[in-house]
Design goal:
176 residues; 6-stranded parallel β-sheet; single chain; alpha/beta
């Protein structure tokens, strides 16, 4: 994946959307290799950090790049302020699938536990003046468009995308 990122960088850079690269868990050894590759990318490329378990794990990240934290575990809203104080955090990306697996519920906007966790993260991020994006939308085009609409209606500031197909699809939807 690191080599593909370097090979495909020019293609990614042609999109108007902000780009951030997901690293391995910030406290893990693979993160070091990820950060070495990121050093070769333009400074406007941000870093997405999964599972930010502790503030100490993100203090060692580069300070010259935007940092986005994955909100993947239940209860992260309660310590989001400490995480933001530990690094220059631009915002949060809700890891809906992982968070729901932790809770033992489906990714379902009608489920009360799901709604509670999403609302808690959205409210905490907004209190910190940080945007929060819904996690990656998967499925066919119809499912992705439905997920985008649900995320917008729920209060997310946007969605994170992982493919050029997503960018094209949601770009056309926004043009309507």
């Amino acid at each position: 994946a690191r080599n593909i990122l370097l090979d495909q960088w020019n293609r990614l850079a042609s999109y108007r959307s902000a780009v951030a690269v997901r690293i391995c868990e910030a406290s893990g050894p693979e993160a070091e290799l990820d950060l070495l590759v990121i050093e070769h990318l333009p400074k406007n490329v941000g870093i997405v950090v999964p599972k930010p378990v502790a503030a100490a794990s993100i203090t060692r990240l580069p300070t010259d790049r935007s940092v986005w934290l994955m909100a993947e575990q239940s209860g992260i809203a309660s310590y989001s302020s400490a995480l933001c104080n530990a690094a220059s955090v631009n915002g949060f990306i809700m890891g809906l699938k992982d968070m729901c697996e932790t809770l033992g519920v489906a990714v379902d906007p009608n489920d009360l536990a799901y709604r509670y966790e999403c609302s808690a993260v959205i409210d905490a991020a907004h209190r910190l003046s940080k945007p929060v994006f819904a996690g990656v939308l998967l499925g066919d085009n119809e499912a992705i468009l439905k997920g985008f609409e649900e995320a917008s209606n729920f209060g997310f500031d946007g969605v994170s995308l992982i493919s050029t197909r997503h960018l094209a699809l949601l770009g056309k939807a926004n043009d309507r």
